[in-house]
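Handout, section B. The chain below has 367 residues.
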Amino acid sequence: MDITAAVVKEIGGPFSLETVSLDAPAADEILIEIAGVGLCHTDLAAKDGHLPFPLPGVFGHEGSGVVVGVGSAVTKVTTGDKVVLSFNSCGRCTQCRKGAPAYCHEFMAFNFGGVRRDGSSTLHLGDAALGSEFFGQSSFATHAIAHERNVVKVDDDAPLSVLGPLGCGIQTGAGAVLNSLDCEPGSSLLVLGGGSVGLSAVLAATVRELNDIIVVEPHQERRNLALALGATHTIDPAAGPLPEQVRAIVGEGCDYAIDTTGIVTVLEQTMLSLAHRGTLGIIGVPADPEAALAVNLIQAQLLGVTVTGIVEGDSDPDVFIPQLLDLHRSGKFSFDKLITTKPFSEINEAVAAQHRGEAVKIVLVHE
């Protein structure tokens, strides 16, 4: 079928709205009519060559929509179901069997490979195959092919068009607090970066009833938003050394820290802001894929610190996304306050607006 998709033709190039051909769903595939799709830093990092993906291709991995077709082997959803799309996984490896699909042994192939498992593409521009299957969906389009492993059915009354970020950015930030670090009630949390991931962590920290929730963010507007969402303190990184500012608030340092910046110098300062037996969770994607954090071994031993990488908030989407929706329904997780909607046709303008800090999380909706 012919659909409209935002095609990137070369590394660093703009999104180009094109009429492309989308395959009919294979036996184990699901066809989704996209209602909305979040604009995520990971899309842009891949577009700019910081993460691998074949070009020309179609990105988009925070889609939500309605099932309009299913393959003969699909049993999880049926036509008319409302769904959120998330990352894909194999379902067979050790980590998937343990309920930890974010650490699937084949995560890169299933989410960045750009093709089906048989090597074919679901998308074509004329006679040319496009990179497809981005996070098992490539949802910067009016329609997308997805899979049972990466669709989550939601209730009919859910606000469908804005649910897509639950599939990646929001579940990553919230999951970092509730799953990955499993922050103890009454403890302290330092959040580096006031974007959608960091502020989702703030929302989750209020759910977990942390005592001190500190957000480090250069933009005053985002610091204000962080406080409105439940942060107890904010820090302007330009106001002085981070460890000094943190310890002026929490004398012993923070029990937990979450970095969404991927900036080595920020991580180094964060290490100096941790309490004894503190934990640093690394989420941010660095601009330099060779970036490395040097850890002082004596300091790490004396303080008993832990450094852990976090992917997708250690989430099993089938379990965690419904939990977040239940929290939202009860008024405890207002992720919608992070979202600004823009027409899908304005995708390039949306990228620029998000880069300027004019919106925390943009969701592109179809007119």
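Note. Residues 138 and 249 are 43 Å apart (CA to CA). Compare this with the example in section A.
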